[in-house]
Design the sequence.
């Protein structure tokens, strides 16, 4: 036996040690305790991460080929050894993202979570490889082989998803978050429109589906409340204003700076937090109409939305360093929204 040749026992031992190492990585990522990891210096963190992900993708493919029954032990050992080193590098880069102030917390949290999922899938993949009969002839025990192929496909998808996240960066994820907020507003507008068509009927129909929870005695004791006509008028007005809020968010996506290197991660964290708070208040407002709250209570929520919209405009203006071309439309929007 030459020095370079490996046997089944050594390969299985490598699979075990690799899996144990990944389990440790998984714990570190879940606890977000990356400060203890020694990280090498890299010239371009984004490019380095993408390169590592591509290598994991490619070598996973090679592992799949090497483990086709009968297993090519030498080739399999070599590929598993290499991909284990790539994972160590990948985990090390995650520590660098945490240390880099140009990356927002919401971005590093999402990136670390995607890498944690990849690690988790790889642990399952290695367990499936351990179940293989290495000297098995091709075509035998196809169920085990099929499960291995499924894991490889999941790993490919996770590598690609993480690579896209790295490529698009802070701003890409922020835009995605804003698009999710827009979808929430669209859903709220649909439900709100139904309420405005017949507020009384919608109120009696128990829009939140809580009728089964309340006892019949409670239902009989509670007198039906007429929806305040002033509340309906306010609702019609705010249906149009919510359309403008949706327009604001859609336009904010286009108004974010093109170069994220100009922006501190903490500033993006503030913007993301504030746009999510705006959506929370939109939900509160629509719920207030559904629940037939007092005019005072609903108007109070409406004022918060108005104030929060203005706050977002101030934030995006600051992010663009008062660039007239980027923020000119904001004043026009505010004038229209205030009428």
Sequence:
């Amino acid at each position: 036996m030459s020095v370079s040749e490996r046997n089944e026992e050594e390969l299985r031992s490598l699979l075990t040690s690799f899996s144990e190492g990944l389990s440790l990585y998984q714990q570190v990522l879940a606890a977000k305790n990356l400060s203890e990891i020694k990280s090498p210096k890299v010239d371009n963190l984004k490019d380095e991460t993408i390169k590592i992900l591509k290598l994991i993708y490619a070598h996973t493919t090679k592992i799949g080929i090497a483990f086709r029954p009968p297993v090519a032990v030498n080739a399999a050992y070599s590929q598993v050894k290499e991909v284990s080193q790539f994972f160590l590098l990948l985990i090390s880069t995650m520590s660098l993202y945490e240390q880099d102030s140009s990356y927002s917390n919401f971005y590093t949290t999402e990136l670390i979570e995607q890498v944690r999922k990849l690690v988790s899938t790889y642990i399952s993949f290695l367990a499936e490889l351990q179940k293989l009969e290495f000297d098995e002839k091709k075509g035998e025990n196809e169920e085990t082989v099929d499960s291995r192929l499924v894991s490889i496909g999941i790993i490919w998808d996770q590598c690609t998803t993480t690579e896209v996240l790295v490529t698009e960066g802070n701003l890409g994820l922020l835009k995605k978050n804003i698009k999710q907020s827009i979808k929430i507003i669209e859903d709220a507008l649909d439900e709100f429109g139904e309420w405005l068509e017949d507020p009384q009927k919608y109120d009696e129909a128990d829009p939140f589906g809580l009728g089964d929870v309340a006892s019949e005695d409670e239902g009989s004791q509670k007198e039906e409340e007429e929806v305040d006509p002033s509340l309906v008028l306010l609702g019609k007005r705010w249906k149009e204003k919510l359309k403008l809020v949706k327009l604001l968010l859609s336009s904010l996506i286009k108004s974010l700076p093109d170069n994220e290197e100009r922006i501190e991660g903490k500033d993006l964290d503030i913007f993301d937090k504030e746009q999510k708070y705006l959506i929370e208040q939109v939900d509160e407002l629509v719920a207030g109409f559904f629940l037939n709250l007092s005019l005072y209570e609903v108007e109070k929520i409406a004022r918060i939305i108005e104030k929060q919209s203005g706050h977002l405009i101030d934030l995006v203006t600051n992010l663009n360093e008062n660039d007239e071309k980027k923020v000119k439309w904001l004043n026009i929007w505010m004038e229209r929204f205030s009428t």
User: Anything to note?
Assistant: The two ends are 86 Å apart (CA to CA). Residues 317 and 327 are 6 Å apart (CA to CA).
